[in-house]
Amino acid sequence: MRSTHMTDPLDKATSSPPPTLGEGCLSRYDPDALSADDGTEFEGAAQLWEQMKLEGEQGSDGLDPQ
């Protein structure tokens, strides 16, 4: 006998993407609609960005390109 407490497995799916702006290739998430609940907080982002820029300036071998 089939259980009636879960007739459609998709009934439990509750996630949905945030609203977007633009269309096609220019489609992007609306920054005003994003919140910490969407997983948009990354405290180390600025530090990581600076580190990556420095590594890119030094070249892939870690040596100064000049």
Compact description:
With about 70 residues, the chain is an alpha+beta fold.
Question: Topology of this protein?
Answer:
Elements: E1 20-21, E2 28-29, H1 45-58
Key structural traits:
1 helix; two-stranded antiparallel ribbon; 66 residues; single chain; 6% strand
> What is the oligomeric state here?
single chain
Low-confidence stretches: none
Distance between the termini: 75 Å
Q: Roughly how much helix do the residues carry, as a percent range?
A: 10-25%
Q: Helix and strand succession?
A: EEH
Description:
This protein has 66 residues and is an alpha+beta fold. The chain contains one helix and two strands; from the N terminus they run E-E-H. It has one helix at 45-58, and strands at 20-21, 28-29. Strands 1-2 form a two-stranded antiparallel ribbon. The mean pLDDT is 79.
